[in-house]
Prior knowledge:
By secondary structure, the protein is an alpha+beta fold. The protein has helices spanning 2-11, 15-26, 31-38, 44-83, 102-116, 130-133, 144-148, 170-178, 218-233, 286-291, 308-316, 329-335, and strands at 120-121, 127-129, 153-154, 162-164, 183-192, 203-213, 240-247, 250-263, 266-269, 274-284, 300-307. Strands 1, 5, 6, 7, 8, 9, 10 and 11 form an 8-stranded mixed sheet that branches. Strands 2-4-3 form a 3-stranded antiparallel sheet. A hairpin with a 2-residue loop joins strand 7 (240-247) and strand 8 (250-263). The chain starts with a helix and ends with a helix. Phenylalanine binds next to strand 10 and strand 11.
Amino acid sequence: LAARFEADIAAATDLAALDAVRVAALGKSGEVTQLLKSLGAMDAETRSAEAPKIHALREAIANGLAEKKDELESAELERRLATERVDLSLPVSETPMGSIHPVSQVMDELAEIFADLGFAVAEGPEIEDDWHNFTALNIPETHPARAMHDTFYVDGEHERPMVLRTHTSPVQIRAMQGSTPPLRIIAPGRVYRSDSDATHTPMFHQIEGLVIDRNITMGHLKWTLETFLKAFFERDDVVLRMRPSYFPFTEPSAEVDVGWSMEKGRRVVGGSEGWMEVLGSGMVHPRVIANCGLDPDEWQGFAFGTGVDRLAMLKYGMDDLRAFFDGDLRWMKHYGFRF
Ligand code: PHE
């Protein structure tokens, strides 16, 4: 029996096989266990002769099992050490890294430029009431500008009709209501108009500027815009042209063009081979100042608004506005900014 179990133990090639041998020998109904049990039925003389042999057998098998178990376990460990080696020379798999969307990048650039000029960043809600978006800005209910803006109205019962803001100008109102002049703010953010083609998306980005102080003139406006556009396009030859225009919330109003020229077959800002419109501006209408609870005889100011997406396209040479909002990772990889 001892020889048979010894052979079985030696033949076990894994821990499961070895455990089967243990059960067969020392388990509840194992052969050695049976022998031990049989001791009880023997007469005293036979028992004292057999007992030491059976116990020695049990002991020998238990030792054999333990030894083989150690052996198998260390073999298993050796095998894993040999096969599961970490190969430090393998190339590292690429970790996908995000990048900064050109719109965010340009908003940051603008905030930095205007911070140097003493402008703080102000914010307002994208779901706006029609008083802030229109009425306070001197656009009464019957005004054709409301239709011109292709406004998205928000369904449901509200104290005042709610819209998705059609421009960042309502932030002018919130800024003036919320503080006492002097005031120098920019307000970048999303705006919405029901319009969609190669140059229009239903959501786009604007940045608003507002200065309220004593004795502010259009000269301050022109200097500010010139300084900002030169800094943004990183060229000293940026030329501005102001054309008389109309906005209900500014008087007088001016549309601002920048000069462009052809460089390497591409239209770039700078020089004056031609003109393109980049922003709307003007002196804040006295009625708007009064609507915010300020005295228009004491406080004057200027405001301007421009499209952030447009500015990004002009500076970084992108040609389709819709690509900004497609979420195509290849586009982001190409135009996005590294951290
Ligand atoms: N809110 C105007 C627009 O969206 C731009 C503008 C802002 C014009 C401030 C004048 C002053 O077209």
